[in-house]
Amino acid sequence: ENTENPVDSKSIKNLEPKVRHGSESMDCGISLDNSYKMDHPKMGLCIIINNKNFHKSTGMASWSGTHVDAANLRETFMNLKYEVRNKNDLLHEEVMELMRNVSKEDHSKRNSFVCVLLSHGEEEIIFETNGPIDLKKITSFFRGDCCRSLTGKPTFFITQACRGIEPDCGIEMDRGVDDGMACHNIPVEADLLRAYSTDGSWFIQSLCAMLEQCTHKLAFMHILTQVNQKVATEFESFSLDAAFNAKKQIPCIVSMLTKELYFYH
Ligand SMILES: *[C@@H]1O[C@H](CO)[C@@H](O)[C@H](O)[C@H]1NC(C)=O
């Protein structure tokens, strides 16, 4: 039976001994041109949602400083030739509607999709101005099976959520809103990358700086690794409260990318 892909099994065999000997990168059976095609006419959309003011019922303090991050990101992604759309202070329902609308746009002439969320939150939860939203609900609009014109194209979700105040226990995660998704449970998340950080704005500052310095030479994953290093080594919190002083943070990268991504072609 010839069910195996001979190319795949061969390259895996080639990979092993060379990796063990610590050979130079790319000399390990991986094709050099295994990167996303970035030759569509447009780079794509970059949606930046900046939630700064929160509804009283959430108990969230207004969160200053993120407008600087939002402006910084706008500049950075415009320089990378993205079509940037900034949105401020959206309600839960508005975010879902915006994401649904954007996922229904025709992305066929675009290389990629970027969504940045700046808010209060946790790793998997982002606060909209009137309550929490599960990030999975946002990302699933853009999965290959839901948004066909982005199938096989890299899709990034970058979130910076300040933990700030602990949310009240008993917040209902599922608000029973019909999100209009036909395909909740199919794990088709290839080509999706999430990068997130949960404290302050060091992550976004570093990300913008590294994207400006390195996009002409490094793949996106390498840039994000540099960002992690920068945040881990250069930043430390300062607070008069000893419990919050001299704290380190490290952003997290969750990659389901299947190729290298360079912001040029
Ligand atoms: C979503 O699309 C509908 C229909 O085109 C439009 O009326 C609505 O304003 C859009 N909503 C957002 C948040 O973009």
From TrEMBL:
SUPFAM superfamilies: Caspase-like
Main location: cytoplasm
Keywords: Apoptosis, Cytoplasm, Hydrolase, Protease, S-nitrosylation, Thiol protease, Zymogen
Domain Caspase family p20 per the UniProt entry, residue ranges: 42-166
Entry annotated with the keyword Repeat: no
Hydrolase as UniProt keyword: yes
One example of a Gene Ontology biological process annotation: cellular response to staurosporine
Complexes and interactors: Heterotetramer that consists of two anti-parallel arranged heterodimers, each one formed by a 17 kDa (p17) and a 12 kDa (p12) subunit. Interacts with BIRC6/bruce.
Name this polypeptide is given: Caspase-3
Organism: Cebus imitator
